[in-house]
Specification:
Blueprint (H helix, E strand, L loop, with lengths): L4 E12 L2 E7 L4 E6 L1 H12 L8 H11 L2 E12 L2 E12 L2 E9 L1 H11 L3 E4 H6 L4 H9 L8
Parallel strand pairs: 4-7
Antiparallel strand pairs: 1-2, 1-7, 2-3, 4-5, 5-6
């Protein structure tokens, strides 16, 4: 990896007015991506390794990847335009013909769900990480409140 990206992890998932707030960050900074409520629940299930009766859509995608010899390498949250985050899913296929790397445009919520289900690294473009508002203090206050709604 170059210095063009910053490694982050999911630091918290909280219910919000319009869905769920996913807190992403590292020791230096935490920022928030808003996702639909059901996506927040799915990401939380993958984080907790919650058993499921039936495969979810993201499980199906991973099963298809495995059937074609494709592995998830990483996800990168790339930019913010008009209050919407963009992300890339980085895949690798290795077979008798060689190795192929493919980048796919995807919603950050889907990227986070897939990365979390596969225990793969999450990165943020360094330029984006520099511009997002630091929400570390907000997350710290929420975590210190005994009645918090943190789903992690």
């Amino acid at each position: 990896m170059t210095k063009d990206v910053v490694p982050v992890e999911i630091r918290g998932i909280l219910p919000a007015n319009s869905g769920c707030a996913i807190f992403l960050g590292n020791a230096k900074k935490v920022f928030v991506i808003q996702v639909e409520h059901n996506m927040g629940a799915v990401i939380g299930m993958f984080l907790r390794d919650t058993p499921k009766e039936r495969p979810l859509t993201h499980d199906l995608i991973i099963n298809i990847f495995q059937g074609f010899g494709i592995s998830v390498e990483r996800v990168v949250i790339t930019e913010l335009k008009n209050s919407t985050y963009f992300a890339r899913l980085i895949l690798q296929q290795q077979n008798e013909l060689g190795r192929k790397i493919v980048e796919i445009d995807a919603r950050p919520s889907d990227c986070l769900a897939i990365a979390t289900s596969q225990k793969r690294p999450i990165f943020v473009a360094a330029t984006l990480f520099a511009q997002v508002e630091d929400m570390s203090e907000v997350l710290d206050r929420i975590n210190q409140n005994p009645g918090d709604n943190n789903t992690l």
